[in-house]
Design brief:
The complex is a heterodimer.
Chain A: H1 2-26, H2 42-50, H3 53-87, H4 89-96, E1 99-100, E2 103-104, H5 108-144, H6 155-182, H7 190-212, H8 214-219, H9 224-246, H10 254-326, H11 331-359, H12 362-367, H13 369-379, E3 384-389, H14 396-417, E4 422-429, E5 432-439, H15 450-461, E6 465-469, E7 477-483
Parallel strand pairs in A: 3-4
Antiparallel strand pairs in A: 1-2, 4-5, 5-7, 6-7
Chain B: E1 2-6, H1 10-22, E2 26-31, H2 34-44, E3 48-52, H3 62-73, E4 78-83, H4 88-97, E5 103-107, H5 114-125, E6 129-131, H6 133-141, H7 154-165, H8 169-176, H9 180-193, H10 202-214
Parallel strand pairs in B: 1-2, 1-3, 3-4, 4-5, 5-6
Classes of the chains: A alpha+beta, B alpha/beta.
Chain lengths: 486, 220
């Protein structure tokens, strides 16, 4: 178990280095999600490692870098050497009399005629490396820069990245086969590059498939981590067997690696099956929390009605009754009582309106989340920057929960944080709706305070996640991610 | 003055009709939904349409949509939108559609103050503006203590609020029980402090003040 934890730690360190390299060299925006916390107990810690989707993605990426990097290095040396050889052919065609396919180069004019071939080869190579850099950038953003909770890079870009990756693979295959055909037909050496580059392509395609088809995955009862784990294991197994088939074919050495992969997968499947049990427990807990929260809210509404509007209406009735009595003998006093009654009625209406807004703000059902949060921002005493990217309206329950996360967080920022500005971001992240409220205040918010606990219950009842980060000195970031069938 | 009313709750529709008739208005039609409102307004060409925001069939913001459509099709009819709640988003949309005035947006609560309400109805019908004090308060809250705003005296803040509601100098003078000359002085000082260009006419003045209030306040 310590070895597994240590292994995850080192994968994370190398992934951090890779993310930095990807940012520096190919301009990726990859930034690693925070490390997931380690639960107590060896067995649980081990299971949490296996169930950590970010860990699997990091491994997939490192694996891709190792194999693709190696193959690319070989290909790079070969291409540069061949191109250099062809371009400088006029200098030494004499003694060697090289053969280009079936054509022997004997004269200077022939040697010069071959030079553009070298230039074309270099150009094609340059285009290919650019494609490869783009693929690496997208891959780094996609695989390293994603939290365990869902992809942040939008799906269209990721699909394009996969297409670029596949295209780059096809192009490289063409170039290598062409070089092989032009130089030394015989032993088919490109098989190694194609095999080792094919593996990361297969893994990449699998990861995309798993993430873009959450419903398919759920039907098989697998978590995202398990699906990626199984796919990567299968790809590695096929790779090892193919390597074995291409080489000695004597002693079946991959058997040990295959047994190890199978054992790890079996442990993971066990963990997911057990986790389903705990998930049901958690569901019961969050449902109880939601029922509690609803009950508390209904009590509050009852109390507000009882002490507020109802009491005012009683007082108003009394004023009107007295006015009726005095209408004949003291019209001036009656007029004062009626005026008083009208003022009381105004107050009652205002209270009822506030109460209604607290149950469900009208503009939310009228115009949706973006407009409602915009209106919240406009009503806040702090300058609020709202960034919303919600092309379709989510389910009403999700919309209301998202609204109240923003409303409560904005109210907290205005009341307690000492902030001078707040930013609210609502966006679709895969099949999640994310609401993030960040202020520039002093931090130190208590996540177990009344308001935040209510929000957590509300979000968890919808199977979402709710996190509050508020270090002393700030800033405070409230993030709710709500699953949402679009 | 000829008026059309669109309100789906019969209790409120009849009450409003009676109140307006008592105060000398000619209610030419009372309808219960947005389509009927557009239809009646196009055929009757009243001076004013009073529209509730929540109307059938969806009970969302039909009233606002119907008002915007009326503005496009019958620009000479003034529009007063009334509702149980106010959102400054709707106020902004209504005012943006009504560059020439003749627009109002009030809470239904205001109807209880009959004198004030009737005054607002006449003002809107004759091309003025009536914006609910609560919308104005929403806009003012967020600018409090920021920028040149904190140099306004409490009295000047009151005058600014009444200007934003669409009242004329005479109306402001009556509400604050001061002379029209005093109001003019306050107004000049407010425009100076907020560096607003002088505006001709009450409606232009409302637009200038609201444009100022709607700017995102700078962080402290």
């Amino acid at each position: 178990m310590p070895a597994l934890l240590g292994y995850r730690w080192s994968v994370r360190q190398v992934a951090l280095l890779e993310a930095w390299l990807a940012r520096e060299l190919v301009g990726s925006r990859a930034a690693l999600p925070p490390a997931s916390p380690r639960p107590r107990g060896y067995w649980r810690a081990g299971q949490s490692v296996l169930a950590d989707a970010a860990f699997w993605r990091q491994q997939a990426y490192l694996f891709y870098r190792a194999t693709a990097g190696w193959a690319l290095g070989v290909a790079w040396t070969t291409v540069i050497a061949v191109a250099g050889y062809v371009i400088f052919l006029p200098a030494y065609y004499g003694p060697t009399h090289p053969q280009v396919v079936t054509w022997r180069v004997d004269r200077l004019s022939e040697a010069f005629a071959v030079v553009p071939l070298g230039a074309v080869l270099l150009l094609v190579w340059a285009a290919f490396t650019q494609l490869f850099a783009r693929a690496s950038r997208e891959l780094a953003s996609g695989l390293l820069g994603t939290g365990a909770t869902g992809p942040t890079v939008d799906l269209r870009r990721r699909r394009r990245a996969l297409a670029v990756h596949a295209g780059a693979y096809g192009l490289l295959a063409l170039v290598l086969v062409a070089i092989w055909a032009l130089t030394s037909p015989g032993y088919f050496w490109p098989e190694w590059a194609l095999l080792s580059l094919g593996l990361p392509l297969a893994v990449h395609g699998w990861v995309e498939l798993v993430e873009s088809r959450p419903r398919l995955r759920r039907r098989f009862g697998a978590t995202e981590a398990l699906a990626i784990h199984a796919g990567v294991s299968a790809a590695v197994a096929i790779f090892l067997v193919l390597v074995w088939a291409l080489t000695t074919r004597a002693y079946f050495w991959p058997v040990w690696a295959l047994l190890g992969l199978a054992a790890a997968l079996a442990v993971h499947v066990g963990a997911v099956l057990r986790g389903r049990g705990t998930r049901i427990e958690r569901l019961e807990e969050t449902r109880a929390g939601a029922v509690d929260a609803q009950d508390t809210q209904l009590r509050r509404i009852e109390r507000d009605l009882h002490d507020g509007a109802q009491a005012r209406l009683v007082a108003l009735g009394m004023s009107l009754g007295m006015a009726e009595q005095r209408l004949g003998d003291d019209p001036e006093a009656a007029r004062a009582l009626v005026a008083e009654a009208r003022a009381g009625l105004g107050e009652a209406l205002r209270e009822l309106r506030d109460l209604a807004r607290g149950i469900h703000p009208p503009i939310l059902s009228d115009r949706g989340l973006e407009a409602a949060i915009g209106a919240l921002g406009a009503r806040s005493p702090l300058p609020v920057d709202v960034e919303a990217d919600v092309p379709e309206r989510p389910a009403p329950g999700v919309e209301t929960a998202a609204y109240f996360v923003a409303a409560e967080s904005l109210a907290n920022a205005a009341k307690h944080s000492g902030a001078t500005s707040v930013r609210v971001r609502i966006e679709r992240r895969g099949d999640l709706l994310a609401v993030e409220v960040e202020d520039n205040g002093l931090g130190g918010a208590d996540p177990d305070g009344n308001g935040l606990r209510g929000l957590r219950r509300r979000v968890e009842a919808l199977d979402g996640t709710f996190t509050v980060t508020s270090p002393a000195g700030g800033p405070t970031v409230v993030l709710a991610e709500l699953p949402c069938a679009w | 003055m000829r008026v059309v009313i669109a309100e789906d709750l019969a209790l409120l529709r009849d009450g409003l009709e009676r109140l307006l008739r008592d105060n000398g208005f000619d209610v030419v039609a009372s309808v219960a939904d947005g389509d009927a409102l557009v239809h009646k307004t196009v055929s009757e060409r009243p001076d004013l349409a009073i529209v509730d925001i929540r109307l059938p069939p969806t009970f969302r913001d039909e009233g606002v949509r119907a008002a915007l459509e009326l503005r496009r099709r019958v620009p000479e009819t003034a529009i007063l939108v009334v509702s149980q709640y106010v959102e400054h988003t709707y106020a902004t949309e209504l005012l943006a559609a009504a560059d020439s005035g003749g627009v109002g947006y009030l809470l239904k609560d205001r109807i209880m103050d009959v004198g004030d309400f009737v005054e607002a109805v006449r003002r809107v019908a004759s091309g003025g503006t009536a914006l609910d004090p609560e919308v104005v308060a929403q806009l003012i809250t967020r600018r409090r203590n920021r920028g040149p705003f904190d140099r306004l005296t409490p009295r000047e803040l009151e005058v600014l609020g009444l200007m934003a509601e669409g009242r004329s100098n005479a109306g402001i003078a009556a509400a604050l029980v001061i002379s029209i000359g005093a109001v003019e002085k306050h107004v000049a000082r407010i425009f100076g402090k907020l560096r607003l260009p002088p505006a001709e006419g009450d409606h232009r003045r409302v637009l200038a003040v609201l444009a100022y209030l709607q700017q995102q306040p700078a962080p402290l």
